[in-house]
Amino acid sequence: MRPHRVWKATAIVGWVLALALVALAILVNTTALGERTWLRVLFGVSALNFTLRAAIPLILGAMSGILCERSGIINIGIEGMMLAGAFAAFVAKTNTNDWPLTTSLLFSTLVAVGIGGIMGLLHATFSIRFRMDQIISGTVIIILAAGISAYLFDRDAVAEGKFAPIAIPLLSQIPVIGPVLFAKPLLTYLALILVALLHVGLFYTRWGLRTRAVGEHPRAADTVGIPVNRYRYMNTTLGGMVAGLAGGYLVLEAVGQFQEGMTAGRGFISLAAMIFGNWNPFGAMGASVLFGYTQALQNELLLAGVKTVPRHFISMLPYLVTIVVVSGFVGRVRPPAAEGKVYETEGGE
Prior knowledge:
CATH topology: ABC transporter involved in vitamin B12 uptake, BtuC
Largest sheet: 2 strands, antiparallel
Strand content: under 5%
Shape: globular
Strand order of the largest sheet: 1-2
């Protein structure tokens, strides 16, 4: 089966499953079905809320990967960029605890985004300027972020406060869907808006057309005057900024504090979501929600005290689903043709 047909079939199945899950969630939370423990664990508002909370850093990580790889730069360093953003947000927040809370949080978010951008620029420089193998460059980014954050982390420091939910009038009153989607903190809304903006940008703007051309056929793009490596620098830096925002989300909205290695493989799961979504923003978001749901299911089963399934098996659910999904779709989806290939212009750009 051709890749685009695989993607189309996957998208249809995904939408059908999503609508079915929404319908089940509404039934479970508004009828007597909610009295059954297993249904409440699978489709309760608590599970749905945790799903979205777990999915947001994966969505942002996947958007970071799309920005980089659509322009031809492989980025397995999302995990490191995310961790660097989280640590930067924590340091900024702990040093601005005496500021007004909103100002402190917004400043810390900008710092996380900025540090993520610097890590993205570093990855682009290694990959383009020094022609380093892009897998190795991404690995260096991960090791660098992990080492610096562990060495400089002050365990006595405390970040005070995090983003509070903002209920959207009327929409937040919709049963089940309202509390899950329309009563969330700022960064959650920002992540969801970013998916739509990136989709429109990639497929309906000049920047998106040039980005896809650079990732598919850089020689042809260069022939018509598109600065290939300049676009790769720009998009990889933007990708780093989005990954930094994902790290900032963990500290400033989800957890409220920093822990060593707190990204816990989310960068790699984001890459799996990107592949599962065929390098498409909405597809990657759907895959991220699926992976987020497995994390929510893990959490709900543990809270419900389920003992018939070994605890360690429950804990490995998100990673098991990631392996199954990626192993099933690798070879069926097609990455950008020039992904991972260094491009040298005649002028030595």
